Amino acid sequence: MTPEPATTPTAAARASAWARLRDSDILASFLASKVTMVSAFVTVVMLAGAAFAPWIAPTNPFDPASVDLLNSLLPPRWVEGGDPQFLLGTDNQGRDLWSAILYGMRVSLIVGVCGVAIAATLGISLGLLAGYLGGRLDAFIMRVADIQLTFPAILIALVIDGVVRALFKGVAREHTAFGVLVVSIGLSFWVQYARTIRGSTLVEKNKDYVQAARLIGIPAPLIMLRHVLPNVIGPVLVILTINLALAIITEATLSFLGVGLPPTQPSLGTLIRIGNDFLFSGEWWIVAFPGITLAAFVLAVNMVGDWLRDALNPKLR
């Protein structure tokens, strides 16, 4: 008889991880909620569409060679006067609206992810410092957070946009719009992360494993990163999910008000702003389809975030 091949440690670890996931309460609650499953499916489909936009979209709305002004303001394919070449019609520049939505979703997601990444990094860092070190530093960071809450993202974006224009007078606004949006979103959302991490850190720093790490001489930065942070990061995952939807809405709002991306970089907010100018003249599709896409994605992400909040809450298990 030939001996059975020995199971490698890596394969055993993968099998054990899969077994834990299969038997976990989180997977069971996910499979038990049809709304969550549909929301997750919609989220994944939209993320995939944005990620693979260059391969899915019929045309590239950023390429002037693929745009013809003679095709501007064409209705969707199924409406009288529509062109079979354009599924959802065209905008005022002759861009295929289906392609513009795919690329616009991609731009909005990049802005949202970058803004949330800045907010999370800043908030987690300040929250760890405030909760672990305490004292005057804690009081200072929390007072700054209180002041920050009085400034909405729109006002922060206007201030940053004005400062950038004053500092870089010779630079076109098209080159600074992306950075202004990302920094504005990052500076608007960091307070939630800081307060959440601070509260959890205040609890964790008095536990035995942190006291033991101090006794053996581990430096405070290493204790915060290696011991405290992994035990307080759970609630941040929920905030990240919900803030991604809020960041995309903020980007759309700022672009709609003219502070965001220019018309040559079609984000969802830019497409909605362009469509609003033609809404009362009968070209409803320019604002309708980007608006539906934005609403569907935000709703799906929020539903997944609500489920994740409940699934990670031990009191609800």
UniProtKB/TrEMBL annotation:
Keyword annotations from UniProtKB, A to Z: Cell membrane, Membrane, Transmembrane, Transmembrane helix, Transport
Membrane topology: Multi-pass membrane protein
InterPro entries from the UniProt entry: BP-dependent_transpt_permease, MetI-like, MetI-like_sf, OppC_N
Major subcellular location class: membrane
Regions that span the bilayer: 37-57, 107-129, 149-168, 175-192, 212-229, 236-261, 284-308
Domain ABC transmembrane type-1: 105-305
UniProt subcellular location: Cell membrane
CDD domains the record matches: TM_PBP2
Highest taxon listed in the record's lineage: Bacteria
PANTHER family: ABC TRANSPORTER PERMEASE PROTEIN, OLIGOPEPTIDE TRANSPORT SYSTEM PERMEASE PROTEIN APPC
Family: Belongs to the binding-protein-dependent transport system permease family.
Name of the protein: ABC transporter permease
